[in-house]
Design a protein that fits this description.
Helix content: 25-40%
Largest sheet: 4 strands, antiparallel
Radius of gyration: 31 Å
Shape: rod-shaped
Distance between the termini: 94 Å
Strand order of the largest sheet: 2-3-1-4
Number of strands: 4
Structural class: alpha+beta
Oligomer: single chain
Length: 121
């Protein structure tokens, strides 16, 4: 059986070889294939090995981190599907109200208190 994992902390082919060597030493591991560009590992094993055991094999080098890759990864594409679409006025209503309030207060004050004095001429 083959299980897929995400591995972080690898920056070069030397890191890749080191992680591959450490994981290959775990009992029941037959083959380890690591994709450095994707940061993924496909580990072929005789029997299921808990993720904690594989993580323990990498404890010697704490910069490497191994996590189980979700076979059912969540898609963010459908997250906003249920959110209703707002019109332009609904979206910008708060800023329009603030603008109207400031404009109204400015005109009101200008009528009662002379903020902008008129030129005498």
């Amino acid at each position: 059986m083959t299980h897929n994992y995400n591995i972080s902390g690898m920056t070069c082919s030397s890191c890749q070889a080191q992680v591959q060597g450490l994981l290959s030493k775990v009992r029941s591991v037959n083959h380890v294939h690591i994709d450095l560009a994707k940061g993924e590992a496909a580990i072929e094993m005789d029997e299921h090995i808990p993720t904690a055991v594989l993580q323990a094999a990498l404890k010697v080098h704490p910069k490497y981190s191994l996590t189980k890759k979700n076979s059912h990864q969540l898609s963010t594409a459908g997250v906003f599907e249920n959110e209703e679409t707002k019109t332009w006025v609904q979206t910008y209503k708060p800023i329009l109200l603030i603008f109207a309030y400031i404009t109204g207060i400015t005109f009101w004050l200008n009528g009662t208190v002379e903020i902008f004095p008129r030129c005498a001429g």
